[in-house]
Design a protein that fits this description.
3-stranded antiparallel beta sheet, globular, 15 helices, 472 residues, Amino acid/polyamine transporter I, mainly alpha, single chain
Length: 472
């Protein structure tokens, strides 16, 4: 905690000398600071550089633990518990390296705010536009899945107390309200609340499935033994869809550009990242393995519905704040991206002017409306999660980071190209190739899965009033 206090002092001390300043370090004055992205930061406007390293941990974990963890047990059911854990650890290792690369790239290039800036440096205007569009589309889809998850929770808690379309709209309105808070520094307390709530919910379900006789959806007559599988034999479509769900569970990487840009001292980024990834991976493995072990093929997706009606209500009661915080955060990220690119270089970016607020609320409102349309138009949680993970999660978390490492290190002098350099070149290429394969194959599998879910009896329809928590 002392380090967090030390971070806070950075905005109150006299300016540092040029010898002390490191790349990404803001030269702070009592009422004035300059940032390579945000420009002049004064007391007359929002302080965009006010996230400490512990707050960074909360924001990082909340971009990942939320929607993704709820699909991990179902992914294990498809793959089998051993292949599921192996795939999860592999994805964790690759995305941790990708996340680390984000922090290093930001320190090398302080003017980079988002993944589009990195794309512009590497590939010119085309790369900038493609990655910028993909970034916004990705988080809009995630916001839509957050609204869908919140509507499932509201249906579960209220025993379908209202039309599902109304619950989706309620989640959208709440998400819009909180996402309009201007800076990530002011959102860290919500991230802590949301993280605590979602962890409490999944721990409640984990304990419940361990002490109860059998899952509610399992046969209630006779002796029941969990039919979990050590190794399963899914079809290609089923397997790649499950892998895409796991990728989505770790695909907070594109948000880390925005988070590190608002840190008081980006040099503490790696510390925050290691704490985040260790906590996320331990949570995914323990929760996914235990819930799947006790529920077997009767595990629900989202997983909070696996322990019966009463526990489902209790779990979703705890989870709702976490799901709403996820929705709020992932509306904020693309809105902030658009907002900064519209006002970057002008005084309105850091001053509380009419133009500032009109642009900011227009961005958060526009993102909210688009996410609401997606949540209502594709109301299939598992299919939506895997589609996001495959189509956009890999594109945002694999290929650009491999290219970023190559961009910074490819031109190394021939006499300095050591074995480790050649290894990292090969690894970077592997990340790009594997990400491309997962994106193409996973998107195909996810689309097929969504189409099949619509053909099944009882499938949810677009803008439906039906109870979407019945199957979970």
């Amino acid at each position: 905690m002392s380090s967090e206090k030390d971070d806070a002092k950075m905005g109150q001390l006299a300016p540092v000398s040029s010898e002390q300043a490191a790349p990404g370090y803001v030269e702070d004055y009592p009422a004035h600071a300059h940032d390579a992205v945000f420009g002049e930061i004064t007391e007359d406007g929002p302080n965009y550089r006010n996230v400490g390293w512990l707050g960074t941990v909360a924001l990082m974990m909340k971009t990942q633990i939320g929607l993704g963890v709820l699909s991990i047990p179902a992914a294990f059911d498809t793959l089998g518990i051993v292949p599921g854990v192996i795939v999860l650890c592999t994805v964790a290792a690759i995305t941790t390296w990708s996340d680390y690369t984000v922090g290093v790239f930001k320190l090398r290039h302080p003017a980079v705010y988002g993944i589009d800036d990195a794309g512009g440096m590497m590939f010119g205007p085309i790369g900038r536009h493609i990655l910028g569009f993909a970034f916004c589309l990705y988080w809009i889809f995630v916001a839509g899945s957050g609204m869908l998850g919140a509507s499932i929770g509201l249906n579960a808690v209220s025993t379908h107390g209202a039309c599902t379309a109304i619950f989706v709209a309620v989640a959208a309105i709440i998400g819009f309200g909180f996402s309009s808070i201007q800076t990530l520094g002011r959102l860290t307390w919500l991230a802590w609340i949301g993280l605590t709530c979602i962890l409490t919910a999944i721990m409640t379900v984990t304990i419940a499935v361990g002490v109860q006789d059998r899952p509610t959806s399992a046969p209630q007559d006779g002796v029941w033994v969990s039919d979990f599988k050590i190794i399963n034999s899914p079809s290609f479509t089923e397997g790649i869809t499950a892998v895409s769900s796991i990728v989505f569970a770790y695909a907070g990487t594109p948000a880390f550009f925005s988070i590190v840009s608002e840190m008081r001292d980006p040099r503490h980024y790696t510390r925050s990242l290691m704490v985040c990834q260790a906590g996320v991976t331990a949570t995914y493995i323990s929760i996914g393995s235990v819930v799947y072990y006790y529920c077997g093929s009767y595990v629900a997706s989202p997983a909070l519905g696996s322990a019966g009606p009463l526990i489902k209500k209790i779990a979703y009661g705890f989870a709702l704040p976490g799901l709403l915080v996820t929705t709020m955060l992932v509306i904020h990220l693309p809105a902030k991206y658009i907002f900064i690119h519209l006002l970057r270089g002008s005084r309105h970016l850091t001053a509380n002017t009419f133009t500032h607020w009109a642009t900011w609320l227009g961005c958060t409102g526009g993102i909210t409306i688009m996410a609401y349309c997606i949540a209502s138009g594709i109301p299939v949680f598992g299919g939506l999660v895997s589609l996001i993970g495959a189509l956009l999660g890999t594109l945002m978390s694999f290929q650009p980071m491999g290219c970023m490492w190559l961009y910074d290190h490819w031109n190394r002098d021939a006499d300095k190209r050591t074995r480790s350099w050649y290894f990292m070149v090969c690894f970077s290429v592997f990340v790009v190739v594997s990400g491309t394969f997962l994106m193409i194959a996973g998107t195909y599998g996810s689309v097929v899965s969504i189409m099949e879910s619509y053909r099944e009896s009882g499938g949810s329809a677009a803008w439906s009033c039906a109870d979407n928590s019945n199957s979970v």
